[in-house]
Write a structure and sequence with these properties.
The chain has three domains: 170 residues, no CATH class; 68 residues; 106 residues, Serine Threonine Protein Phosphatase 5, Tetratricopeptide repeat (Alpha Horseshoe), CATH 1.25.40. Helices cover 66% and strands 5% of the residues. The chain has 21 helices and five strands.
Length: 475
């Protein structure tokens, strides 16, 4: 089940790699596949109810059943969690009185398509496990009991397989019933859209009541309780929707004033103020171009305020392509997600984006990922637009990392552009160290054009001994 604040409950969530168990205020916590998992005390009540229903079974069978319930819930929620992770959302899993829930932070509403995919991923994972264990049951189930043959008691392994396929297939199908907050209910909301939330809740209430009644009739007590609880939740939500006043219309002039104030606040580095105005425009405007600009102002403002995590959460929740690639890359870079930032910047450049800021950020990302040679090569494009000290820093880092050829070429290009003797000398020693006599001679000639006396003094350096005859002839 995926919880959603828009439907009256909270999205529970997270991510990590270490595997440890922690007990805090009765809550059991551990991590699996990088997802934090919390088991609330209410889950143990569910376990106790299940155990009471298994009193006629041997203790070993009851324990196997409890284990299979836990595994089934976990696999279902992992389906949601992996789908959320695929969209860049960190997710966490919580076990509670009614089973489990997967949640993640989101600054804005997910797109309807993504919401549906995350919602359907849980039942899909359960069905996959159910089909797999059903197949294994057919393979390992004992035969006998027919034609006078003695009945063969299945092993606990086969009992576990039987539990798993029944639980997962039954629960996955049950979860697809269009009742909020089941996964089918979330799909219903996504299909009808936010403008028809009242219709979604009404359908959920009617279907929930009908399913609860049918479950009671067929003595499916657990299903009856689940559907009954969902129906009550839908009724409460329907009352909330009914009491919510309709959205007020805001005239275009007011929105433009708010947008102007947001632009002004951003320019003045009043980031919280810019965020507030931009958020107001996002709340009330329905025009795509206006929302795009407001979203970009909001993202830049959050970056300026140092809230890279909040900016990234909002970026991920937005539609793909909603914001400029450079801004998206800046958000990813600030949040420490360098590969994603590099991918966005490379994509922008492949489409012909030659903005200096795009190239400069890409160089920075490359350096932080220790791609010094590539960074040095790319920095040639920035020589005419960036301070020489910045270019020089790239060359120095490239040289220190072992990318001597790229560093020497960059130093020589900078020397020509900035007419700087020291850069030419740096290039000369770099080429000499590499044994590239031709380019070393070229760098020597460039240095000679800037300062003849300093250049002649270089001839006494031990590092240039092998090149001395050629360099002297150049003098």
């Amino acid at each position: 089940m995926v919880a959603n604040s828009d439907l009256g409950s909270a999205r529970l969530d997270c991510s990590c790699r270490s595997h440890y168990v922690n007990l805090d205020m009765g809550i059991l916590r551990f991590r699996i596949f990088g997802f934090p998992v919390s088991i609330l005390p209410g889950y143990w009540l569910l376990t106790a109810l299940f155990a009471l229903g298994s009193v006629r079974q041997p203790l070993s069978v009851g324990i196997v059943g409890l284990f299979c319930v836990f595994v089934s819930i976990l696999v279902h929620e992992l389906g949601h969690a992996f789908a959320a992770r695929a969209f860049g959302l960190p997710a966490q899993i919580t076990f509670h009185l009614l089973g489990g829930a997967t949640s993640f932070p989101q600054a804005t509403q997910l797109t309807r398509g993504r919401d549906m995919m995350i919602s359907l991923a849980g039942p899909a994972a359960g069905l996959l496990l159910g089909v797999l264990t059903w197949g294994l049951t057919q393979l390992y189930a004992p035969t006998g009991g027919g034609g006078g043959e003695p009945v063969v008691t299945p092993s606990l392994f086969v009992v576990a397989l039987q539990w798993l396929w029944v639980l997962n297939i039954a629960w996955s199908i049950l979860n697809l019933v269009p009742v909020i907050p089941f996964d089918g209910g979330r799909v219903l909301v996504a299909v009808l859209g936010p403008s028809r939330i009242r219709l979604s809740v009404t359908i959920s209430l009617v279907v929930g009541l009908a399913a609860a009644g049918a479950s009671f009739h067929y003595e499916l007590d657990v299903a009856a309780v689940l559907f009954g609880s969902a129906a009550v939740s839908s009724y409460v939500r329907m009352r909330q929707v009914a009491s919510t006043p309709p959205k007020r219309q805001v005239d275009a002039a007011a929105l433009e004033r708010a947008m102007h104030a947001a632009r002004q606040a951003l320019a003045q580095e009043a980031y919280d103020k810019a965020s507030a105005f931009a958020h107001g425009v996002l709340t009330w405007s329905e025009e795509a171009s206006v929302r795009k600009e407001a979203l970009e102002i909001f993202l830049w403002a959050r970056l300026g305020a140092g809230d890279s995590a909040g900016a990234r959460a909002l970026l991920i929740a937005a539609n793909p392509g909603t914001v400029d690639d450079y801004l998206a890359a800046a958000v990813q870079h600030a949040a420490g997600h360098l590969p994603q930032a590099q991918q966005l910047l490379n994509s922008a450049r492949s489409r012909g984006d030659k903005r200096v800021e795009v190239t400069a950020l890409l160089v920075k990302v490359m350096l932080e990922q220790h791609e010094y040679a590539a960074a040095a090569n790319l920095t040639h494009e920035l020589i005419e637009h960036s301070p020489p000290a910045e270019i020089r820093r790239v060359a120095e880092e490239a040289m220190a990392s072992g990318a001597a050829m790229e560093a020497a070429r960059l130093s020589l290009a900078l020397a020509r552009a900035d007419r700087n003797f020291d850069d030419a000398a740096q290039a000369l020693f770099g080429f000499a160290k590499l044994g590239d006599r031709q380019q070393a001679l070229e760098a020597f000639k460039v240095a000679l054009g800037f300062d003849k006396s300093k250049t002649r003094a270089l001839l006494d350096d031990e590092a240039l001994r092998s090149l001395r005859p050629e360099l002297e002839s150049a003098v």
